[in-house]
Amino acid sequence: MRRSLFAALLACLASLPVPAADPAPADYLARLAAARIPRDAAAVVVTPLDGGALRWDDNQKNPMNPASTMKLVTTYAALHLLGPAYTFRTEVLADGPLAGDILRGELYVRGGGDPHLVIENLWQLATRVRGFGIRDIRGDLVLDKGMFDSLPHDPGQFDGEEGRAYNVGPDPLLLNFKSIAVTFVPDTAAKVARVMVIPEVAGMRYPRMVPGADGGCGDWRGRLRADINDPMNLRFGGAYPLACGERAIYLGALEHTNYFGAVFRGLWERQGGSWSGKVREGKVTPTARLVAVQESAPLASLVRDINKFSNNVMTQQLFLTMGAAGGAAGNPERGAAAVRGLLAARGIGAPELILENGCGLSRVERIAAGTLAAVLVDAWKSQWMPELMASLPVSGVDGTMQRRNVVPGAAHMKTGLLEDTRAVAGYVLAASGRRYVVVAIINHPAASRGTGAHDALIDWVYRTG
Q1: pLDDT band at 464 (very low <50, low <70, confident <90, very high)
Q2: Which residues pair with 209 in a beta bridge?
Q3: Which tens digits make up the pLDDT trace of 311-352?
Q4: Gap between the Cα atoms of 376 and 140, Å rounded
Q5: Beta 435-443 vs 136-137: how paired, if at all?
Q6: Which residues in the chain are classed under CATH 3.40.710.10?
Q7: Is residue 235 a contact partner of residue 226, using CB atoms and an 8 Å limit?
Q8: Range(s) for CATH 3.50.80.20 in the chain?
Q9: Looking at the predicted structure, is the pLDDT value of residue 14 above 60?
Q10: SS3 state at 452
Q11: Does the pLDDT at position 296 exceed 70?
Q12: pLDDT the model gives residue 426
């Protein structure tokens, strides 16, 4: 009797479900703890894409500042709303009689929001204008910026670094990221460093060389003692360490319209042209005739540049362009509405989503790790998966993942970095051949010490997924 009861009890116990082992990645949690980052300051989602068994999340519904991983949402939306073959169009038009090679009137440039209108493109436009027969412009260079609403932008508001290129704001005629590269090229024989400024900016003053210094590279900027407060009059009070090789300082302090005019004047005069007017903003007149057109690279190519190198202003250009549908000028509110509408149409609920500029260079933007993971899952199933996937930095190979402590080639990941934020979001190919979406965000004053925890998380997915 007792044996029968005991056997029955064993059978009953055997039929009960066995609790699963805790799937939490121990090394990730240990590294968080070692960095003194509380677990509730971090959010994680690991979800399989093709039948893998590994699945884990922590604080996935918490609204988090995603830093530059927000670019994934913007580029994903742009591929769907604009299409991977979408191009941005910049037009040059003339109004006034052309007597011989003299234009007695205005030359207009109508901006199309091109995120990658670089100096080579402007050179091509200037060459086409010369090919049209114009050499001497007697009127003004008028910039038509009606593509976007007039947007106030304080480049020093975010972190006080108003001269840095990453703080450049968007513009319908964004030229060369409104950036000036001041490049130092060592000449060891002459014990100097040659100074080159690209693009050439009319009226800009700077020394053509600075003294060279021996010793290691170290704090080369500090030793150079650069005074860049007035970007049109650069000064260097120190010396450049020759051991540094070629280095550059990138400036973005000039105002968009004046920058465009100064760069255009430099190019135009170098090509033998003359221009006696000024640069100003205005609308293209109905009587203006088309002179030249510059088409951008297709969106799929631009998205790659954005995500590989985390370009803030290019992302903002996309964000505003998505808000410029139906003839309305683009602005942040319309851009945010377009992104929200796309997410809703794709069945992705995002009640916590806050969009300010779409690039993550923001103190107020928020998204839950679960929402960002849902975007990546949907992107994987969509027709534009190859375009988005190819835009992501690859671990150990390129972009912002090149020097991470992650198995080379195992992760296609967008990274995010702010003073109090570290984030990764993308795809991990496990050693098993299964692929996973991984999103991990830390919001904490000690976030800079959390990079190792994120690398440990990716490694855990690679080994056990």
Answers
A1: very high
A2: 194
A3: 999 999 999 999 997 789 999 999 999 999 999 999 999 999
A4: 48
A5: unpaired
A6: 26-85+299-464
A7: yes
A8: 89-155+255-295
A9: no
A10: helix
A11: yes
A12: 98
Q: Contact, 416 vs 454, CB < 8 A?
A: no
Name residues whose C-beta falls within 8 Å of residue 61's C-beta, 6 or more positions apart in sequence: 352, 368, 370
Burial 28-59 (b: 16+ CB within 10 A, else e): bbebbeebebeeebbbbbbbbbeebebebbbb
Q: Hey, which residues does 367 pair with through a beta bridge? A: 64
Q: What CATH number does the domain located at 26-85+299-464 have?
A: 3.40.710.10
Amino acid occupying residue 370: G
One-letter identity of residue 175? L
Residue 453 tokens read as 């925890």
Homologous superfamily of the 89-155+255-295 domain (CATH): D-Ala-D-Ala carboxypeptidase C, peptidase S13 (3.50.80.20)
Average pLDDT of the chain is 91
User: Under a CB-based contact definition with an 8 Å cutoff, are residues 323 and 338 in contact?
Assistant: yes
The structure tokens listed for 380 are 């994987």
The whole-number average pLDDT for the span 235-253 is 91
Q: What is the pLDDT of residues 173-208, one digit of tens each?
A: 999 988 889 999 999 999 999 999 988 888 889 999
